[in-house]
Specification:
heterodimer, A: 330 residues, alpha+beta, 5-stranded antiparallel beta sheet, 12 helices, globular, B: alpha+beta, 5-stranded mixed beta sheet, 27% helix, disordered C terminus
Chain lengths: 330, 761
């Protein structure tokens, strides 16, 4: 761990001023610190300045609901989200994702903004012994290495998986991310916010170094759409997903009217499924054969590595499980 | 029993002293409140005035020769007080082949240099300034690689074997296999597992003139003193070891590790106390692990279940060095668990470029029992026999290796009966499979060579001037409850309450021999010595009171801190002690030898119920019922704790835990508690201890034996057998992770295991 300066601005304007220096020397915003501090201790992050956001008076931290819509401050904790009754009612997949993440202690500390910006848990990325591509090296060590927990969809060089449970649910609900930077505020669709790392930008989001996530806005879900988050882990608690599924489905007259599925644990970013699912529209929600076929098609583009082929049938099973959970009781 | 003809006649047995009566109920751990309130001081909590912080530079390569080391920049860093490398440190012999700082490094994590500085940050900064020029050598990271014909030689010599394979046999296995009507022939592998002690290895070293004090996290203060003194060329009386409380050892802290001597040398050079506690990565890679194994097992049996022959070829991955301590005795499992006339084992111990293995809770037996008990289950199913019936069919009342009867021959039978009854084995209501969830039950048995206790062991019991008795021992309490159990024996013998006993433990200054806390030996070693010392102390006190009161001793009784006569005369213990001075009302007790005519062992059995999700590969253990022979139970609560802890650790071994090594670099990828997954409370099922509580009075005068190790032994095979019962798939490799189970569920007819070599159909 390298020594760093510490800043604790009290207004967003001050924070953005401090961040402006990020162009010349790195400034890292600190919220819950559950990911950033371990990264600093492991020398993966070595900021010149650590800027505490928790003192900001004007950075929203609460959860505001307007009708069925929800707007959540970047500083809302995962525990806040998990136990918010209206979130649980209107966006169950999100509440379930929050509740399935990490441990109670971590959920009390970790923030919504932070969970969007979590770095991968890939053991090559996290280990000081490797300089993998994501850390500026020339190749992905996982591709030929120990890759049982890695991505089955190929999005570029890196095969780390995105670790956030909530991110999958936010993609499912078409969340919009409000960010503020030196040029003012902009709002991004969550599907644009996450982007597989590329040569010139080796991170999982398009957030610029001098920008801050300030809030997340959730549009009201379509009437009568049900949602669920299903997570497979290799331990009963305190584990990242081997594969997870955030799914929503709306039925009309015992037919599927709309369905969406976002997979976690399979790619560098939350992975919305497009292939295969459309064929379910019009099918009966209890048509197991159709759902199984759709799940198979949905995973047909997967390119598993040497040790993670199990994720493909696992993802298919979880999709079936999620959709059967969402089917209205006959 | 066929073998009974060769038993020696009952001879030279030393009759146990009068059996001890224990008060009913149990008592809470004496240090419990201190621990749960955070006041208990562990070695890692020790802070001394002027103390420096040490850090160790470790090899980044799995095998290399050090061409040169430059430390100028590190030494020049302000706040650095000492730097040690192979160039300025005596070549103290270490391990079986090696030096404290060797010029050849043999695993990623091998010690290269050490620094003591004003702060941990400066120490780490100084390490980064040390320039080491390595000449990389080719390496072998697992058994297959190390045994290959073209494998690099890790310690020179012909092959990477620690010694010639150990062949142990009785009878004629070839004939036994010919007589067999059914043979189970399987290969099993078990993984490298980390002890994952929550308190890492480490110590604080301080010199006072020529006397060294080490506040060490160790399972053997006496053994550590001897080893450190020998390494440093000192008299052992000039070394003092203190271990007030221990945060987990499980076998890994039973020898002197390099950091113990490095801390002492740094403290000597810097002339200041030095704190050297390992970080989690070093804890995971450099100070011991359970060895991996490959076991080729063949079991021959008659149709009625009688075993005709057992063979096992065993390879043990010991890592880069033999660290000492208890050996991993995988092979013994095959010789002792069941009656069988023809048994042959061949055990090879293999060097690899990974951290040195060391004993881990029932070393060897956990690995061997996984294979043997999986094979026995397969055999029972092939013969359509109940797994418990098959084991009863092959029951032995003698130690077939030593050809001696067991002191408690009926104990294992009692365990079978107790566990089967408490679990409801015979009347298990198998639920009909619904959806993806399948339930099943599994059984496994075990025996264990430890638990018997043995000399030397000496304790003192003295009456203090406060009227309380002081029990002095040179043992340590590694979290198992040694303090409490010994105090209970002492109190029972004296006929007073446990609160009237003060226990002195964890400091070599008492100069009393005690065993390393290993082999489940502490209670059975020191318990009888405590009993003897307490009985003598009681006699001394009564004699002194009789003299003071001028009454016959047989008329006196001890009541509420006073020795009283029926007519009302009496004298307080405190007064008596003051009258007699410090030393006179003090007695020593010694552990006598075990009788030679008999073999002492511990044993047990477990039943588990699992639920397997065939779509996600998730295995939930629903319940575990365990019965283990530990002789007389001195403290039920502490024994239950060992049973629960051992089973939880066994569950981790069976399902979750395993070292992952990067094949190209030799780096351990999960040397942390995030990726190395030990069970959480959510993984841990209801654990029922169906105690048998049979005093083994032929073993020692207390009738008590050890319980530390047994509960971990049969967990993995019981779970594997239950998984087979649930889904019809047998897994031959631990850990049975969700991904290996998913691979197996989706890939018949052969089983693909996600972290091992590619399968061949």
């Amino acid at each position: 761990m390298k020594a760093f300066e510490y800043a604790a601005p009290e207004s967003l304007a001050d924070a953005l001023r401090t961040l402006r220096a990020a162009r010349t020397q790195s400034v890292r915003p600190l919220a819950g610190g559950t990911d950033l501090l371990p990264l600093i201790k492991a020398d993966i992050e070595a900021p010149h300045t650590l800027m505490n956001l928790k003192r900001l008076r004007d950075l929203p931290r609460g959860i505001e609901l307007d009708g069925e819509e929800a707007s959540r401050g970047a500083l809302a904790s995962l525990a806040d989200i998990a136990r918010h009754p209206q979130i649980a009612r209107s966006f169950p997949a999100l509440a379930q994702a929050a509740l399935s993440a990490a441990t109670p202690q971590l959920r009390n500390m970790a923030t919504l903004g932070g969970t969007l910006l979590q770095r991968p848990r890939c053991w090559y990325f996290r280990s000081p012994h490797f300089r993998c591509w994501l850390k500026g090296g020339s190749a992905c060590d996982a591709r030929e290495g120990q890759n049982q927990f890695h991505a089955v969809f190929d999005t570029g060089v890196c095969r780390a998986v995105h670790p956030s449970d909530l991110a999958c649910a936010l993609v499912l609900f078409d969340a919009r991310i409000r960010v503020r930077g030196p040029r003012g505020e902009r709002t991004l669709a969550v599907s644009e916010f996450f982007a597989p790392p590329e040569d010139a930008r080796r991170t999982e989001t398009v957030l610029a170094e001098d920008e801050l996530v300030v809030a997340v806005h959730l549009p009201a879900p379509p009437h009568r759409a049900a949602s669920v988050y299903v997570k497979a882990m290799d331990r009963a608690a305190w584990a990242f997903a081997t594969v997870s599924v955030a799914a929503s489905m709306r039925c009309e007259d015992d037919r599927i009217a709309a369905v969406s599925v976002v997979l976690g644990g399979v790619a560098t970013v939350p992975w919305p499924l497009t292939a295969g699912l459309q064929q379910l529209v019009g099918a009966s929600p209890s048509d197991d054969a159709a759902i199984t076929a759709a799940a198979r098609t949905a995973l047909s583009a997967a390119e598993p590595l040497r040790m993670n082929a199990y994720k493909v049938p696992l993802a298919q099973s979880l999709i079936r499980r999620a959709l059967s959970f969402l089917a209205p009781a006959p | 029993m066929l073998e009974s003809t060769v038993l020696p006649a009952e001879s030279r047995s030393e009759p146990p002293t009068e059996a001890i009566a224990f008060p009913p109920g149990d008592c809470a751990r004496l240090e419990g409140v201190e621990k749960v309130t955070g006041r208990a001081r562990y070695s890692a909590d020790v802070r001394l005035p002027e103390m420096l912080w040490a850090s160790v530079l470790r090899s980044p390569l799995p095998h290399a020769r050090i061409r040169s080391i430059r430390t100028n920049a590190a030494r020049a860093l302000p706040g650095v007080h000492a730097v040690l490398t192979c160039e300025n440190t005596p070549a103290i012999p270490w391990y079986d082949h090696g030096k404290l700082f060797d010029r050849t490094v043999r695993f990623v994590g091998d010690e290269v240099a050490a620094v003591a500085a004003d702060s941990p940050a400066i120490a780490v900064q100084a390490l980064a300034l040390i320039e080491v020029d390595y000449e990389p050598l080719s390496f072998a990271l697992d058994l297959a690689a190390a045994l290959a014909a073209d494998a690099p030689r890790i310690h020179g010599g012909e092959r990477n074997l620690v010694e010639e394979p150990r062949v142990d046999q009785r009878g004629h296995v070839r004939r036994g296999m010919r007589e067999a009507e059914l043979i189970i022939d399987r290969v099993y592998t078990t993984q490298i597992a980390h002890h994952a002690c929550l308190e890492p290895h480490g110590c604080v070293a301080a010199w006072n003139g020529s006397v060294l004090t080490l506040y060490a996290s160790t399972q053997g203060i006496g053994a550590l003193r001897e080893e450190v003194a020998e390494k440093l060329g000192m008299e052992s009386r000039d070394v003092r070891i203190i271990t007030e409380h221990m945060g987990g050892g499980f076998g890994s802290k039973q020898v002197a590790w390099k950091h113990d001597v490095i801390a002492a040398l740094l403290a000597k050079e810097a002339r200041r106390p030095v704190y050297l506690v390992l970080d989690r990565e070093a804890e995971s890679v450099a100070v011991g692990n359970r060895n991996a194994t490959r076991q080729h097992v063949r079991i021959g049996a008659k149709r009625d279940g009688t075993l005709t022959a057992i063979t096992a070829e065993i390879d043990i991955q010991i890592g880069a060095y033999r660290a000492g301590g208890e050996d991993s005795i995988v092979d013994w499992v095959y010789h002792s668990t069941y009656a069988c006339r023809n048994v042959r084992t061949e055990q090879s111990v293999v060097y690899t470029n990974t951290g040195p293995a060391i004993a881990f809770r029932a070393p060897g037996y956990v690995e061997g029992a996984f294979a043997l008990e999986s094979a026995m289950d397969e055999l029972a199913r092939a013969l359509s026999l109940d797994p418990i019936e098959l084991r009863l069919k092959n029951y032995t009342e003698i130690d077939q290796r030593k050809r001696k009867p067991y002191t408690l021959p009926e104990a294992l039978r009692a365990c079978y009966a107790s566990v089967s009854r408490a679990f409801g084995w015979k009347s298990y209501p198998r639920p009909t499979a619904t959806g993806a969830k399948r339930r099943g039950i599994g059984f496994a048995a075990h025996d264990w060579v430890g638990g018997s206790g043995h000399p030397p062991g000496k304790v003192r019991v003295a009456l203090g001037e406060d009227g309380r008795f002081r029990l002095e021992t040179g043992a340590q309490d590694i979290g198992t409850g040694t303090r409490t159990a010994l105090a209970q024996i002492c109190a029972s013998t004296l006929g007073i309450g446990v609160d009237q006993i003060e226990v002195q433990i964890g400091d070599t200054d008492v100069e009393l021999p005690a065993p390393v806390s290993a082999g489940s030996a502490t209670l059975a070693t020191l318990g009888p010595a405590v009993q003897s010392a307490a009985a003598q102390a009681k006699a001394l006190v009564f004699d002194a009171a009789a003299a003071a009161l001028q009454l016959p001793v047989e008329t006196l009784a001890l009541e509420s801190g006073r020795i009283v006569a029926p007519v009302g005369a009496g004298i307080g213990l405190a007064e008596l002690a003051k009258k007699h001075g410090r030393r006179s009302l003090r007695a020593a007790g010694k552990r006598t030898s075990n009788r030679r005519s008999h073999a002492i062992r511990t044993c047990g059995a477990q039943c588990v119920e699992v639920e397997v999700d065939v779509e996600t590969g998730e295995v939930r253990i629903l319940r575990v019922v365990a019965a283990h022979d530990c002789g007389r139970i001195i403290n039920r609560r502490l024994v239950d704790s060992q049973v629960i802890g051992g089973i939880t650790q066994g569950l981790g071994f069976a399902l979750l835990e395993g070292r992952v090594v990067d094949a190209r670099s030799g780096v351990v990828l999960n040397a942390n508690l995030e990726d190395y997954k030990i069970p959480t409370i959510a993984d841990t099922p209801e654990i029922v201890h169906a105690a048998i509580d049979l005093p083994d009075t032929a073993a020692n005068s207390t009738g008590a034996k050890g319980i530390g190790e047994p509960p971990i032994i049969p967990v993995a095979p019981a779970i594997a057998n239950a998984i087979f019962d649930a889904v019809g798939i047998r897994l031959y490799n631990t850990p049975i992770s969700t991904c290996s189970l998913l691979d197996a569920l989706s890939g018949p007819p052969y089983f693909r295991v996600c972290d091992r070599e590619e399968p061949t159909p």
